[in-house]
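Title: Prediction job returns without error message
Component: structure pipeline
Severity: low
Priority: P3
Assignee: unassigned

Description:
Job completed but the reporter wants confirmation the result is attached to the right record. Sequence as submitted:
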Amino acid sequence: MKKSVFILWLIILLGGMCGCVKEFSSARFMIFDAVDYVEGFPRVIELTEGKVPEFDVMGINDFCIVDSIILFSQRGSDSLWSIFSLPDYRLLGRCFTKGNGPGEFVEAPRTAFKTDFFHENGSLIANIYDFQTGKVVRSDISASLAQHKNVMSVLCDSLPSGLFNFISVSDSTFFCKEISPDFTQQWRFMTGKSAGMLPPAVQRLNEAKVDDSKDINIISTIAKMNRVNGKIVEMPIGLNYINLYSLKDDFAQTVCIGDELDDIHDIETQMQWNRMYTYADLRVFKDFWGVVSIMEDMKTFQTGRKQYPSILLFDWEGKPLAELKLNRFINSFDIDITNQTLYVLDVYNDEMFVYDIAEVLKEIG
């Protein structure tokens, strides 16, 4: 009799424990079923020996490194992009002008955001989404530099303007993210000649929602794709987790920095000054990817930053590789893999620094 009572009590206890497993609402948590919680990194490296690179460029919006070429998007200049070779900082040329005519842009397109670089038949190509017009422009960067003129064509003129995210999966297939009509959600979708349906896990991200009249930027993200393995990293700017997924299969992984996931509803109830600015930049590489970790509330970030940021590096399974601690304030970064150097930019002060990270790259393999 006692044995039967004990078994019954054990069943009730286990049943109660199973009932305590937290279920995450897809409206309040923009995550996948698989979540890895990262509370530390196997390598923590302090970077202190930064040098100032000598680029003849002012008013930098952002920058991007492709092979041993660095491209700057800039403001207040006749040319919207300036291109230099690395590591000698030699000016290769400037391209794109401001205007409403053919081959012109209303505003300087970003090099690191909504622009995809790749090689085709030995040439460096950029597929650029024009935020103001919705056009997708294909620019042959190599030919433009060689011929001293913009060699470009329009790939697509049917996308909406103002997309929150844009990735050129191919010249005819695009992955996009737009705001919903009621301004409470951001919807991911595929478009183009060979566009298919989003995987169910990725469709679930579209269910994340803010309440009416709340800040849609709580669920804003930056997304980039690795053209080698086809995986996409999607980094929020106000949530403490990052999503990693594929458009080709069912791979979907959430990486949370810390031991608890941010709840969209909880953030909505906070005053805007008290909300956290989590991540500022995202870069992808062949074997790993990384983000700039800010982790300061909006008031501190706007009125006087106190905590130096870090660059967090992960492999393509979402496993942490290294934390690079900086000794200055930055907003963005990129890595010259060929010359094993890290470039960082403080866009607010127009300051750039470069670090030797040969040992770091060797350690993370």
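Comment from assignee: result matches the submitted record. Residues 1-21 have pLDDT under 50 and may be disordered.
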